[in-house]
């Protein structure tokens, strides 16, 4: 029987919680057949680390960018650095970027500026985007709708919106990142989204060290748990896990080019 091949399209190996035992995190992932990991930045320093890790480990790739909660005080210096490093051969996307109105660390106006600047850079470099949207579904959709014809695509990281909105996103060429909350018993909306959206528009991610899937909820998350997410997708789709795994591999190739 063929071994399954998993991909974590959104992991923070550059987070201090994982960095302190990184060799164990990576070993556990590989032992669970997680063969590719996309290390995502959220500010300047974490983006630098994402690139370092992507060059250190052949199976890692970097997604670099500035999270809406972390752009306070950023100037042309930071955005010029981002512009320069988006051409790195191991950088596969720009992110995670978007809107977050849950944490009161930056204003809507500051988030508007940061999002547009980074979307313009994604267009310039012909890179997909990794989108963060918390308590901001409508404004995120409106901005991305205005950009969808210029962008080469992107993923709605840890998608938590409605099924109706998900259908509109895939019409515009975006895909959905499916993470640990899908496995929660009370995750009715997440489960409905996966049932209703074609597998061609889904990818697996952990957001480690956060959003740990059931039955390990409350513990530190790691890419080793990707198989739990893929299994839940397969159950909801009523197909074999190998069907989900193969389609995710194809989706990653199509959107991220790896």
What does this protein look like?
It is a single chain. With 258 residues, this protein is an alpha/beta fold. The protein has a single domain (6-256), classed as Metal-dependent hydrolases (TIM Barrel, Alpha-Beta Barrel). Helix content is 43%, strand content 17%. The protein has ten helices and eight strands. It has an eight-stranded parallel sheet with strand order 1-2-3-4-5-6-7-8, sandwiched between helices. Strand 4 (91-100), helix 5 and strand 5 form a beta-alpha-beta unit. Helix 9 packs across helix 10. The longest helix has 18 residues, at 108-125. The chain is globular and about 50 Å long. The two termini are 25 Å apart.
Helix content: 40-55%
Strand order of the largest sheet: 1-2-3-4-5-6-7-8
Q: What's the count of strands?
A: 8
Number of helices: 10
The total number of structural domains is: 1
Given this structure, which CATH class is correct? Answer: Alpha Beta
Which spans of ≥5 residues are poorly predicted at pLDDT below 50?
none
**Gyration radius, rounded:** 17 Å
* Residue share in β-strands: 15-25%
Instruction: Tell me the series of helices and strands, N- to C-terminal.
Output: EHHEHEHEHEHEHEHEHH
Query: What is the CATH topology classification name?
Result: TIM Barrel
> How far from one another are the termini?
25 Å
Largest sheet: 8 strands, parallel
- The shape is globular
Task: Give the structural class.
Answer: alpha/beta
CATH homologous superfamily name?
A: Metal-dependent hydrolases
- The CATH architecture designation is Alpha-Beta Barrel
């Amino acid at each position: 029987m063929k071994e399954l091949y998993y991909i974590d399209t959104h992991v923070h190996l550059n987070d201090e919680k994982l960095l302190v035992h990184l060799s164990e995190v990576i070993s556990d992932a590989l032992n669970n057949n997680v063969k590719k990991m996309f290390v995502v930045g959220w500010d300047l320093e974490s983006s630098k680390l994402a690139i370092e890790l992507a060059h250190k480990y052949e199976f890692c790739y970097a997604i670099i960018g500035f999270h809406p909660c972390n752009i306070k005080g950023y100037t042309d210096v930071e955005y010029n650095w981002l512009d320069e490093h988006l051409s790195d051969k191991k950088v596969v996307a720009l992110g995670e970027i978007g809107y977050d109105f849950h944490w009161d660390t930056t204003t809507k106006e500051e988030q508007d500026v940061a999002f547009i600047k980074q979307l313009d850079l994604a267009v310039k470099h012909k890179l997909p985007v990794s989108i963060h949207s918390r308590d901001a579904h409508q404004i995120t959709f409106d901005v991305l709708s205005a950009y969808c014809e210029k962008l080469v695509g992107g993923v709605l990281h840890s998608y938590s919106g409605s099924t109706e909105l998900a259908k509109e996103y895939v019409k515009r060429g975006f895909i959905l990142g499916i993470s640990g909350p899908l496995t929660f018993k009370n995750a009715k909306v997440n489960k409905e989204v996966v049932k209703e959206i074609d597998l061609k528009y889904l990818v697996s991610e952990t957001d480690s060290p956060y959003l740990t899937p059931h039955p390990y909820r409350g513990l530190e998350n790691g890419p080793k748990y990707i198989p739990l997410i893929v299994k839940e997708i397969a159950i909801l789709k009523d197909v074999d896990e190998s069907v989900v795994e193969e389609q995710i591999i194809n989706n990653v190739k199509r959107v991220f080019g790896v």
